[in-house]
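In the current project phase, our protein records have gained a structure token line. A sample record follows, to show the layout:
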Amino acid sequence: MSCAAGKIQGNVVVDLGKEEDNFGDADMPVAISPRTGEVLLLQMDGHLTIDEFNKAFDLAVEGCHKVSEIQKKAIMEKYQSKNGGE
């Protein structure tokens, strides 16, 4: 699972859009294994202070977990409704 955080006009944010990614101050894609929390990818383009880096990293990891939960829920709902109708 992956998610990106970055810095736009001095603010650290998560889930950058194309324009924000291209013209922001920094972007940092992070990929993790949701089950183990192991970091699989960490890349940064631009400049962040240590505090900004920590905030961006935490936001990206939190975003990964949220997306993973949404995906799990969608898959469970799809296949539970198919099995329930048989």
